[in-house]
Design goal:
Rossmann fold; six-stranded parallel β-sheet; binds uridine-5'-diphosphate-xylopyranose
């Protein structure tokens, strides 16, 4: 079976880059990315390719190459579904904010809506691919909906979780550690569908990097991978607090530990806390699943990763207040970086949001600079928390266009995101323009301690 037309529902951080790379690497396949959000689709179609809605290094060049040739962005969901042989579902699956499983389970509302729409529209056989991260056994629910509400056509459901990380999405897609495809491995039709997807990736990924499993293993592997990665960050963050009280340096500890080939060096960087759309959501989801099977010890074990992460964000903010003589009321604090990591404009679950919220509750005045995040997004993130009115947020938080401007007349600087440009700032000039004593809190352990102290700062870094 040869795939000629692909449709992807959801033009977000996962759907957009993934489909762009598939289109670039498979010029003979038509790829249409659809989304309900008209503004987002318009941005993907913007004449100036630098205006696409997602900032990822290298992505605009991929889009420029394929867009209009075999890569299309559209709001006509029905049409794209009908034409496709293969449909990726890449809509968001946030943590539920209501009802059973509130604050833990994944909200599958959008997934179900997609399934019902596919069932209603499809007049020919389709392979439906779960790209969104989903609780184990969601494929079964999808199958039930498709088979019971469809027009009698055949649906094959595959799970193909995405492992790309934001900021390195294009590179991760071009050179994946592995591509995971779960399907109905026990039937001929299931195996055919899996092979069709293997052949799509086969355009640029070697066979030994493509794993095929049953659907449940694939779904659970995605949650497991994210839980393990987040667990490493919480583990080193737990050590960072111990380093601070013992005089050890967390970077030295993580280097020494990471050189053990059994442990490995990656994901051992202490920080103000992990953010992003996946880690917290997926672990909460894992905890919920474990609890629902009565596996309370398993649930508690993974929940601790989140508890540690919340603690890390809170203690960073509390330390700022404590260091500034137990009050930040009316004091100006510059926050450098808002995104949850460098090289992305994504702010979902960013530590900066929670640190800002804490400081605002202590009546601080905040000035934010981030090279890629818009003012609109920063206010939306704070408003979403509901801790104060939108008007109050706009009064106490200002957004500026340079780091230098943010730090002018500030009592303290909090470095929140490890953007490269923060390394190259003229820190001595920044120091000169701040109120004294000038405090600098490095939430990423990015800056050179000695240099900062020599420049005059009262310097504090996570884990040191
Ligand atoms: C992805 C995954 O799909 C999610 O499961 C994973 O855990 C995080 O990453 P992402 O691409 O980052 O989500 O989400 P987002 O950027 O919010 O994009 C989802 C898009 O789907 C949005 O543009 C939204 O408008 C669209 N959508 C949602 C639809 O087109 N139809 C719907 O019914 C729901
Ligand atoms: C993650 C997974 O890495 C990816 O495989 C999955 O598909 C989606 O979730 P992402 O959230 O985009 O990707 O970024 P990631 O690089 O994993 O960083 C997540 C958070 O952890 C960031 O806030 C980052 O700053 C933080 N982090 C990461 C650390 O604090 N220390 C580290 O050593 C690594």
């Amino acid at each position: 079976m040869k795939i000629k037309n692909i449709c992807c529902i959801g033009a977000g951080y996962v759907g957009g880059p993934t489909m762009s790379v598939i289109a670039q690497k498979c010029p003979e396949i038509n790829v249409t990315v659809v989304d309900l959000n008209e503004k987002r689709i318009a941005a993907w179609n913007d004449e100036n390719v630098e205006n696409i809605p997602i900032y990822e290094p290298g992505l605009s060049a991929v889009v420029a190459e394929a867009r209009g040739r075999n890569l299309f962005f559209s709001t006509d969901v029905d049409e794209a579904i009908d034409r496709a042989d293969m449909i990726f579902i890449s809509v968001n699956t946030p943590t539920k904010t209501y009802g059973i499983g509130k604050g833990m389970a994944a909200d599958l509302k959008w997934i179900e809506l997609c399934a019902r729409q596919i069932a209603r529209v499809a007049t020919s056989d389709k392979i439906v691919v779960e790209k969104s991260t989903l609780p184990v056994r969601t494929a079964q629910a999808l199958k039930n909906i498709l088979e019971n509400t469809g027009n009698g056509v055949n649906f094959q459901i595959l799970s193909n979780p995405e492992f790309l990380a934001e900021g390195t999405a294009v590179d991760d897609l071009l050179n994946p550690d592995r591509v995971l495809i779960g399907g109905d491995i026990d039937t001929e039709k299931g195996r055919e569908a899996m092979q069709a997807l293997v052949d799509v990736y086969g355009h640029w990924v070697s066979n030994d990097h493509i794993l095929t499993t049953n659907v449940w293993s694939s779904e659970l592997s995605k949650l497991t991978a994210n839980a393990f990665l987040a667990q490493r960050v919480s583990s080193i963050n737990a050590m960072s607090e111990l380093c601070e009280v013992t005089g050890a340096d967390v970077n030295e500890v993580s280097k020494a530990v990471g050189m053990d080939s059994r442990i490995g060096a990656k994901f051992l960087k202490a920080s103000v806390g992990f953010g992003g759309s996946c880690f917290q959501k997926d672990i909460l989801n894992l905890v919920y699943i474990a609890k629902s099977f009565g596996l309370n010890e398993v649930a508690d074990y993974w929940e601790q990763v989140i508890i540690m992460n919340d603690h890390q964000k809170r203690r960073f903010a509390a330390n700022i207040v404590k260091t500034l003589y137990n009050t930040v009321s009316g004091k100006k604090i510059a926050m450098l970086g808002w995104a949850f990591k460098k090289d992305t404009n994504d702010t979902r679950e960013a530590a900066s949001i929670y640190v800002a919220d804490y400081l605002l509750s202590e009546q601080a005045e905040i000035v934010v600079y981030d090279p890629k995040v818009t003012e609109e997004q920063i206010y939306a993130d704070l408003d979403y928390l509901g801790s104060r009115t939108g008007e109050e947020n706009r009064k106490s938080v200002k957004i500026v266009n340079t780091a230098k401007e943010a730090c002018l007349d500030a009592h303290a600087v909090a470095l929140m995101t490890e953007w490269d440009e923060f390394l190259d700032l003229d820190w001595e000039a920044i120091y000169e323009k701040m109120l004294k004593p000038a405090f600098l809190f490095d939430g990423r352990k990015l800056l050179n301690k000695k240099k900062m102290i020599d420049s005059g700062f009262k310097f504090y870094a996570i884990g040191n």
